[in-house]
Amino acid sequence: MSTIFWITVSGAILTYLTRIGGYLVISRFNQLHPRVEAGLNAVPVAVLTTLFAPAVVDGGPVEWATLAVAAAIAFSGRSFLIMFLIATAVLVALRQFTG
Amino acid sequence: MALEAEAIPRNEFLEGAALSMPIILGVAPFGALFGMVAIQQGFTVAEAVFMSASVYGGASQLVGVDLFGSRVAPWLIVLSIFAVNFRHVLYSAAVGRHFARWPLMRQAIAYFLLVDPMFAESERRVSRGQTLHFTWYMGMAIPIYVSWVLATWIGATFGPLIPNAHAIGLDFILPLYFFCIVLTFRTRANWLPIAAASAVSSVVAFHTIGSPWHVTIGAVAGVIVGALMPGAGAAQPEETEGGNL
Into how many domains does chain B fold? Predict the structure, then answer.
């Protein structure tokens, strides 16, 4: 078997371990400390923010305008889907002018 | 109220599948890009597709093929794939609390498919007090998985024919998507300080240490802030909101 094959298989096994690992560790405890609980509840915001923050900073007026529209819609109390669809439309429209 | 709606599962699979559609728009060009790059770095089409189907983690796969092309020692490539995917430990710790009621085999499958958008939508569903059903989960997860593998094959096979994703805005779809998801979490405890800590540290790390390490560094910073904020010690676990456990 090739090097690529073994890199892939090892990478896949380790990746699967990361995907079950957190739960395997947490499930050993009957009672979570409230601060651990608070830390876990912070995970979605903490991780998902890192998936857009650099792209926002490196973006330009088009990207910033798109995010401003999304934020305005969010704070006006509209649903997630409406926010995402309108913001996407704004992004695509603005890209037509800027290339 | 939520209880009655949950008692009769509507077509949960289709509901999940609908949520996968915007994700596929962002994921497919990325998968095609991976397929194209993998071929350039000396992978065969079968090897590229096999990696997408087994590792199933976009950023880590790109790092992997990139390092392979620069003749880095294999164990270091594997270690890098692991490091890029380390954030999933946090995902499984957080969302695993809601998988725990499923049969073991279903949990094993769900964890394999636990990519960023699956985690995001699962948390959003739990936040709204809805029960996390396996059927719903698979309805969203299967189309994304199939698209990812298929896009890899298309990119590896027809690489140079792929249209410019930037011109139609596809390169910013996933950042925009995650931005919108984070906005929907704004009523969570300490939302702003957590997001701010995570944003600042990930951007600094992105420009100093470099991608993809900014993800782990930013995530850890945000989680620490969330755990240490005054009042966090008395925080309510949010699954009590829905009352449907």
Answer: 2
Residues B159 and B125 occupy one common structural domain: yes
CA of A81 to nearest chain B CA: how many angstroms apart?
9
ipTM: 0.89
Could A22 and B169 be called an inter-chain contact, meaning their C-beta atoms sit closer than 8 Å? no
CA atoms within 13 A of residue B210's CA, in its CB half-sphere: 2
Q: Which of A2, A25, A88 minimises the CB distance to B176?
A: A88
Nearest CA in chain A to B104: A20
d(CA A22, CA B94): 8
The phi and psi torsions of B40 (rounded to 5 degrees) equal -60, -30
Q: Give the pLDDT confidence of B59-86 residue by residue, as tens digits.
A: 889 888 888 887 778 988 898 899 889 8
For the entire predicted model, the pTM comes to: 0.78
**Quick check: A36 and B194 CB within 8 A?**
no
Q: What is the DSSP letter of B232?
A: G
C-alpha to C-alpha distance for B227 and A36, rounded to whole angstroms: 6
Do both B88 and B120 map to the same domain? Answer: yes
Contacts of B140 in chain A (CB under 8 A): none
3 state DSSP class of B38? helix
Task: Determine whether the interchain pair B218/A88 forms a contact, defined as Cβ–Cβ distance below 8 Å.
Answer: no
Residues B210 and B102 in one domain: no
Rounded to the nearest integer, the mean pLDDT of chain B is 85
Instruction: Return the pLDDT at B245.
Output: 28
pLDDT in tens, B166-190: 666 667 887 898 899 899 889 888 9
Which residues on A lie below 8 Å from B123 (Cβ)? 44
Domain of B88? Answer: 12-185
Distance CA B206, CA A83 (A): 27
Distance from CA of B132 to the nearest CA of A (A): 16
The C-alpha atoms of residue A26 and residue B96 are separated, in whole angstroms, by 9
**Domain coverage including residue A19:** 1-40
